Hints:
Blueprint: E1 3-4, E2 7-15, E3 19-26, E4 29-36, H1 44-60, E5 68-73, E6 79-84, H2 91-95, H3 101-120, E7 123-124, E8 133-135, E9 141-143, E10 150-151, H4 170-173, H5 180-196, H6 206-212, H7 221-226
Antiparallel strand pairs: 1-2, 2-3, 3-4, 4-6, 5-6, 7-10, 8-9
Helix pairs in contact: 3-5
GO molecular function, one term: ATP binding
Enzyme class: transferase
Domain Protein kinase: 7-238
Amino acid sequence: MTQVGRYRLVRRLGVGSFATVWLAAGPGGEVAVKVLAENWAVDADVRARFLAEARLLQRIADPRLVAVHEIGTLPDGRPWFAMDHCPGGSLDDLRRQRLPADRALRLTAEAARCLHVLHEHGVVHRDVTPGNLLLDADGRVRLADLGVAKDLSVGTGSTMTAGTPAYMAWEQATGGALDRRCDVYSLACVGYALLTGRPPFPVRTLADLVARGPDARPPAVAEAVACRPGWTTCWEPR
């Protein structure tokens, strides 16, 4: 595949469980094009959630979120959408570096402003991770990947558990009340990861997260940094 709508595909940026994201060249410059995976093309629920993400980003249309420019359908019936390309990478790239504490806190504050926009529109992201917080060409944080976001104004029925266990609130994993507090907890985990290089609880599965319990406490930031050979920070315990 070399072309999607008006966009010429340049290279693959990433592959997820449900979609592939491509860097593409279009009439207005570079964009990122997200295409539903072939193996999910006939799944009506997955298709609906894919399109819901694009339409939600279009509806909110705020500069702190990745903007969607166009939604389309491939000849084989798979939906796609073109969105802003953020060439600065993600906060997960920075997490792996020796990030000064003041910059880590500033980036976390920027991410909080992005989440505030989403919450003001009655939407819970449900998967706030360093990898879903991108940096645009000016170095500003942009919130992306609303694939499992929940619009709280649309019904109150059961919602499947979704998210990344290492950044997910225990209550979210166990079917507790779903509201913006889940995202706030995840944001705190992002800040911790930027300061220390790892999430507070590096669990890999939902079962591990549930077994951890709601009252577990992570190592203090200064202690966690001290455990990383070669890492330094201006964060000092008091």
